[in-house]
Give the backbone structure.
Amino acid sequence: MEPETRLSATLLDRASVKGREYSWPLEDIPNVIEDARKARLASIGGQLQFHLPDGGICECYWIEVDTMRGQKTPSNWDEQVEFTAAEALRQFARIGSQFDIVAEGIAAFPNHLLPLLGSGEDPRGLARFVWYVEAPT
């Protein structure tokens, strides 16, 4: 069973699941992080994606949260959960000030996102963030 299934039903109802990846609208990610903390799950991080109307996915892998990069190993699981939640919230907040999400998507995937703009669809509404969590072993 995937650890994401331990998140609240409310958040799971808002998730998109493709393969084994769970993603949420960007505004839900702070709630996902907090919910993971409450469920004693470590927040590993994730990446920005645009979920296209035709089912395709454009992944902006460089717009990411990675709580495991360069971290010292906490002494126990509860410390790991608390550390990764705090680090995930910090890194995710930075994304909003560091990147123009729509501009990044259009620059990387003009053939997919520019036609949507031309038809009046806002690519921001297609933006999702894949989020990974880990349960204690």
In short: Strands lie at 16-18, 21-25, 42-51, 57-66, 127-130, 132-134. DSSP finds five helices and six strands in the chain. The mean pLDDT is 93. Residues 77-98 form the longest helix (22 residues).
